[in-house]
Amino acid sequence: xxxxxxxxxxxxxxxxxxxxxxxxxxxxxxxxxxxxxxxxxxxxxxxxxxxxxxxxxxxxxxxxxxxxxxxxxxxxxxxxxxxxxxxxxxxxxxxxxxxxxxxxxxxxxxxxxxxxxxxxxxxxxxxxxxxxxxxxxxxxxxxxxxxxxxxxxxxxxxxxxxxxxxxxxxxxxxxxxxxxxxxxxxxxxxxxxxxxxxxxxxxxxxxxxxxxxxxxxxxxxxxxxxxxxxxxxxxxxxxxxxxxxxxxxxxxxxxxxxxxxxxxxxxxxxxxxxxxxxxxxxxxxxxxxxxxxxxxxxxxxxxxxxxxxxxxxxxxxxxxxxxxxxxxxxxxxxxxxxxxxxxxxxxxxxxxxxxxxxxxxxxxxxxxxxxxxxxxxxxxxxxxxxxxxxxxxxxxxxxxxxxxxxxxxxxxxxxxxxxx
Length: 420
Description:
Blueprint lengths: L2 E2 L18 E5 L5 H4 L2 H6 L2 E8 L1 H9 L6 E9 L2 E3 L9 E3 L3 E2 L12 E3 L6 E2 L12 E3 L6 E2 L12 E3 L6 E2 L12 E4 L5 E2 L12 E3 L6 E2 L12 E4 L5 E2 L12 E4 L21 E3 L5 H4 L10 E3 L2 E3 L5 H4 L10 E8 L1 H10 L5 E3 L3 E3 L2 E3 L8 E3 L3 E2 L5 E2 L4 E2 L5 E3 L6 E2 L12
Parallel strand pairs: 2-3, 3-4, 4-8, 7-9, 8-10, 11-13, 12-14, 13-15, 15-17, 16-18, 17-19, 18-20, 20-21, 21-22, 23-24, 24-25, 24-26, 25-32, 29-33
Antiparallel strand pairs: 1-14, 5-6, 27-28, 30-31
């Protein structure tokens, strides 16, 4: 199952039919693209489909000799091996393996806005799209297992990325300064996030890392000021210095790491620890509250997991419903859980739902009377106002609503006279 990082990179998968016009070229001998097109055509072409066999020399032609090239379809090409001085690296004799997208293939190609890469590639070279400032659409086939260093470095127009399911690692500075990048979907098999991998990706909304991630590199999310929530799985054993430095929008950090890691003081530098909530594993609050760096967080709490939705009442420890004052919930919720918090927890003052997700529910027992349909990601109508007795939840003082919420329902907080 994929997780969304509201860190939110979708590298959109685009079908070959998406490039339907422009010039088509078939090459039977790799390295011959330059001679297959007249200079006047190369100087003006903006859309190109290439089929047949190509090598690193043909990438040089597309990169350096087609100044207007914006849309490129290589879906039915095969990349052949090449050993020589005329490839994309440009200095000395270089070996370019078969079925590997060459390093620096489109380095600095500012006109390129979308590309379909060959489906047969097994790897992709470093800096292949570095400085492609207009690039917004590119596909990576499922055979790619590593995102190399600086692959999308300073690709300012890139907005969403869904990494191939086989991806095991993200290289150093792979998405550095992709300032419009707002969504990154990380596959379950990912193990390592490199140094500065998402540094200065200021539009990312969440960094939700899947179970299996072991290492978070130095400066990995530094200056990602749009991040509001972070999820650290239990598998993490290393968080590099300045990993979340200057991520001053973070409101919640959820960690499943059973024992607090030793981290440097600057890992969460400029994160407001008087506001940010730190959610730790059950029974671990006391050791986090004593651990260096972690103890700086003013609000440290243990989560109550409500999974599946509608079962908050049976997930809470027996006998605490009438006395609990502070509640943190992660997982999924529906309107029945809101009704339970409203009507069956009379002392409840502080609620943190920042890492919870509201799911759709149709039926009775929700916040409204009758058989009602409640929408996904919508804070239910009458969440904390009981229309039958015309009373709000007077005990409620503070609440953090789920970060994915799109709409707050009618009179959700009516009568909550203590809500500050």
